[in-house]
Amino acid sequence: MELALYDSESGYYARAARRSGRAGDFFTSVDVGAVFGELLARQVIEMAGLVQSPVSSLQSSVASRQSPVDFVEAAAGNGRLSADILRAIRAQDRATYDSLRLHLVELSAAARHAQRPTLDDVADRLTSSTPDLPPAFTGVLIANELLDAMPVHQVVMREDGLREVYVTADHSDPRLETGDWRLMTIEGPPSTPALEEYLNRADVKLEAGWRAEINLNAVEWVRDAVRRLERGFLILIDYGHPARELYSVTHAGGTLTTFSRHTNSDSWLARPGEQDITAHVDFTSVSRAAEDAGGDILALLDQTYFLLGLGAAELDAADLKTRLAVKTLLMPGGLGSTLKVLIVGKNVGRPALRGCSFGVRLT
Predict the structure, then answer these.
(1) What is the C-alpha R_g of the chain?
(2) What is the pTM of this model?
(3) Domain ranges of the chain
(4) pLDDT the model gives residue 63
(5) Mean per-residue pLDDT for 231-243?
(6) CA separation for the pair 282, 36 (Å, rounded)
(7) Alpha-carbon distance 297 to 251, whole Å?
(8) Cα separation of 135 and 51, whole Å?
(9) Nearby residues of 347 by Cβ (< 8 Å), 6 or more positions away
(10) Residue 25 near residue 19 (C-beta atoms within 8 A)
């Protein structure tokens, strides 16, 4: 999965600046239009104000209000989402816009090369564009559909215990030409005791025959991001479930899947480097990692309720394009309920955030 998605020469994400949209392999909320960024801008403005608020009576509110705020987008691609958010912030609150320092985090060199042209009139806010998170930052980090694209371990429970699924090359198929090969899976002992430890900590018991994916990378990434955050918020938007649902009979076959030309399948060994590979996120373990690093879990809710809290229903209903975009973002069974929003705070207390004002509901 690591090679198929991120190899610098052959990886699916490394070879293109953009993979989503009508001409790509899948749709994200960003592809719906600028309305998604406009709604997120409202939450970023509120969070930036909370970060800039005095942390002691010795600070001047005016001086604090002018302090810079880091706005970090992880897995930023070509920067489309940040561009939409920044344009909306500039229109809604010029003072906040002027205080922001944009950091785009993206592994693909092709995507990074496309960021400044995509930002265009808001490129003045760009402070850094690198493959890694800033060493330290104070402000707001957004990651839209990052964790589900991180490489996972796949395991299967057998009568004699947990086994891991490995990928190997098969040269024995008689239909192959001499020297050719195809990918296949084999089972073996777990590659690391961390896999069983992960399931035990999540209080998960897999039944015989159940398959599951374990995303050790996601847990470590979130832990690292919270450690680097000195004061502020993380907004993580992704496909996933709490552990009790993800590791249950409902998903007993696992969630590893591929997307190609807007069609998903379980043929994840086919055409490596030519299609997306993804697995659902365990929000229980991700949340615990954030808390271990000093963060506070402020909310976990469906994208529908998060965007309704940000005023999605108040957008211009007379504009057909906007109405259709909002419907797509909120629709149950689609982006609205399958995408979850995890909000983490650090050194900001437990504020009543606008994105949670419609109610914290998880389906």
Answers:
(1) 21
(2) 0.91
(3) 2-151+213-249+277-356
(4) 47
(5) 97
(6) 24
(7) 25
(8) 18
(9) 55, 230, 231, 232
(10) yes
